Amino acid sequence: MPIFEYRCLVCNREFETLVRTSTPAVKCSHCGSELLEKKFSLFGAKVGQSVDAPSAGSMGSGGGACGCGHCTCQ
Known about the structure:
Blueprint: E1 3-8, E2 14-18, E3 36-38
Antiparallel strand pairs: 1-2, 1-3
């Protein structure tokens, strides 16, 4: 189920809403207006861990506890 981002053209507020095929017309969550602009938004995708990436908790070359090799987290 996709979550879309909108900007209200009446009160200029931005909000997100879950949109299903059975969802009635989307309205502003603040003022109730149907005069909306759908914003362009990116999506994230979870991908598998790279074979050569260090696992969490291992000591990387940077000495950080997370094993990323870039930070100094303990």
